[in-house]
Amino acid sequence: MSKEMNIEDYRSSLDDPASRRYGTFSYLPEMNAGRLREQIEYMIARGWAPAIEHVEVEHAADHYWYMWKLPMFGEQGIDRVIAEVAACHAAWPRHLVRLIGYDRKKQSQGLSVVVHRPA
Question: What global pTM score does this model have?
């Protein structure tokens, strides 16, 4: 006996800011200070290099985002990463800001999550 699945299209539009989604984590509740700290702790515990990127909302689906400084290779300070995320957001308040954890062993992103969305 098979179960019938009802898969629906998720309606989103550039004209409707409330409908926009930017990757898997964007379906979760907004990133707050506690969740951001947990993501950074997770990243650093695995030896991943934190990096911060930003982009205009209308270009979020493009392949390339702007890099905020260089990746923080070897960084162990959670508060230092949080300060850089805040500095990027302060410099680009109308941009999306994304935190990435680069896994040097697998040569790929181990984590990528939007941490700030413009109001």
Answer: 0.78
| Residue carrying the six token digits 């409908």 | 19
The tokens 């019938």 sit on which residue? 4
**Helix, strand, or coil (residue 29):** coil
Separation of alpha carbons 41 and 77, rounded Å: 9
Q: For 9-26, how does the pLDDT look when each residue is reduced to its tens digit (9 = 90+)?
A: 666 666 776 666 666 556
Q: Each residue of 32-73: pLDDT tens digit?
A: 899 999 999 999 999 999 999 999 988 887 778 999 999 999
Instruction: For residues 69 and 42, give the distance between their C-alpha atoms in angstroms, rounded to a whole number.
Output: 21
The H-assigned helical ranges of the chain are: 33-45, 78-91
| Helical segments of 7-115, H only | 33-45, 78-91
Give the separation between CA 35 and CA 68, rounded to whole angstroms: 21
Exposure string over 17-37, b if 16+ CB within 10 A, otherwise e: eeebebeebeeeeebeeeebe
